[in-house]
Every structure is written in C-alpha cells, then in structure tokens.
Amino acid sequence: MRVHKGRISPAAALLRSSKPIGVSDARLVYYGDRLGLWPLGEAQRDLMTDRPRCQGLVDTKGVREVKPPRDLSKTPIYHIADLTNLPGILQSGGLLSDALLAKTKSTSTNIGHSHIKDRRMTQYRVPCVGNRFVGEFVPFYYCPRSPMLYTVNQGLTGRPVGCQSTIVHLVTSIAHAVGLGRHWAIADNNAGSALADFSNDLGTLDDLDWSAIQAHYWRDCKMAKAAEFLVADHFEWHAIQSIGCFDVAAARRVRELLHGQQHQPTVSVQQGWYY
Ligand SMILES: NC(=O)c1ccc[n+]([C@@H]2O[C@H](COP(=O)([O-])OP(=O)(O)OC[C@H]3O[C@@H](n4cnc5c(N)ncnc54)[C@H](O)[C@@H]3O)[C@@H](O)[C@H]2O)c1
Known about the structure:
By secondary structure, the chain is an alpha+beta fold. The chain contains 9 helices and 16 strands. About 20% of the residues lie in helices and about 25% in strands. Nicotinamide-adenine-dinucleotide binds next to strand 5, helix 2, strand 6, helix 3 and helix 4.
C-alpha cells in the first residue's frame, strides 16, 4: 500500500505508529481512486490536504464510498432575464424579488406566466424562512436551458416565439449567494408548486435530483429540473459572476449596457444553454 507523505493526518499517524493495525482499529477506505486505512471514529480527511472528505465518521461497516464535500463556489446557479431589464437591474444595484418589483412599480419585462407569478406571491410559502411568500425571493435555477426558458421561447407566456435570443443567463454560485448574508432557501422542485419542499440546510443540496437538473431531455423530470435556489428580496449585482448569451449580437448588447459599470461580469456566448 502507498503511504502518502505530508501533513500527519489521523490516518497517517495510525500507519506510522508502532502499534499493529488490526481490523478493530481501522477500516480500508477509498480516497477517490486510492485505497487507504482510516481509524474508526475519526472524521475522514484527505491525506494530502487534510481537508474533510466526507461528513460522517468512519464506521464499522468497512469500506465506504467517499464523496468529497460539495464545493459551493463551483455550484453555479442561473437567473434568466430579458436584456431589456438589464438597465433596471443595474440601476437598482441587482435583481429584485417579484414582490419588491411590484412595490417599486417597475416596468420590467415579464417573461414568465403571470398566473404562476401570482401564485408565488399569494399562495406558496417558504416555511424555513419565516413562512414568507415564494414571490418575496429572487429565484435561480441550478441549470441553464431551463424548462422555463423553453416555455417562454415557445411563446406560451405571451412573449414572441423565438424570444430566447434576447434572454440572458445571469450566473453566480451558491457560495456567492449565501455570502450575501440574506435569507435563502433550497427548493427541491418548482418553488411555485405544491410539490416543493424547502430547506435552509446546505447539506440538502445533495438530495436534489441532479440527474434531472442536468438532463438535456427533461420531459419526464420537468419539476425536479425546475428546482430553485431562492435569495430573499434582493440579489446584489456585484455577486453576478458571468452572463451567458444566445449569440454574438446579444453579447455585444450586454457589453454596451455594462459600459461604465464598476462590476463587470464575464460575458460570453453560450449556445448550449439555449433551445
Ligand atoms: N428568472 C429565472 O431565472 C427564474 C428562476 C426560477 C424560477 N423562476 C420563476 O419563473 C417565473 C418567472 O420568473 P421571473 O423572475 O423571470 O419573473 P417575471 O417573468 O415576472 O419577470 C420579471 C423580470 O424582472 C427582472 N428583474 C429583476 N430585478 C429587476 C430590476 N431591479 N429591474 C428590472 N427588472 C428586474 C427579472 O430578471 C425578470 O426577468 C416566476 O414565477 C419566477 O419566480 C424564474
């Protein structure tokens, strides 16, 4: 067995100790693609970096599959908006919830179904965040090319057929969203539906249906793909990291609108994010 050099983790200390290692002291555990020994009852950490590799303790069940903890800075979330809303978004310092937009009597271009928007403002609540209405949150999806974009592009919400060409994806990460210090929630389905369960425990991100979220063909898993990350009230512009556009013309227009702004997210064409 290969013994890794570097910082002395509990496993390395055990391997180096003069005490013979028996099955009652340690278990063989996979570290990614490597096998190693780990003391029972210790939280498992990476031998080289000493970072946690899984949340639980090594137990007596023997070899267990080790899943690295989710890197929240590499877990992107996406908000789609029509290009015509970008000046308003910049003027108010970021995205506003539908409830706040209604209060400010904004003239933003709505792209979603208005009856669904109403339900989110008056019917569906987020129990883990003071029972506030879903419409009081800025919504994000965990994927680009959402079912909502498909519906909007088909002309089913009152916008012209093919209107995706002027819709942009504003991209951030869960780490950035949580770092804003606002209340937030994870919805495991479309948050404007009776199917959604809400949580404000980041551990429950692993319980989302990631194969549905990442599915290219989603007819059979539409609701799970429409899972949402919700940020209360306001999502500050400085936390938007990048903007994905339909084509070169849309990217050029975004760059024009961002001209003179202090915070400049990366702008790129992302054809694969569209239908
Ligand atoms: N847009 C998304 O990425 C997204 C993600 C998850 C769920 N949903 C849900 O889908 C439905 C439609 O979503 P929607 O949010 O696009 O709402 P919407 O169709 O009612 O449109 C409102 C628009 O206003 C924009 N906006 C936000 N802050 C603004 C500001 N300060 N100035 C000007 N415009 C601003 C939003 O980006 C959005 O495009 C809603 O029910 C929504 O909750 C949307």
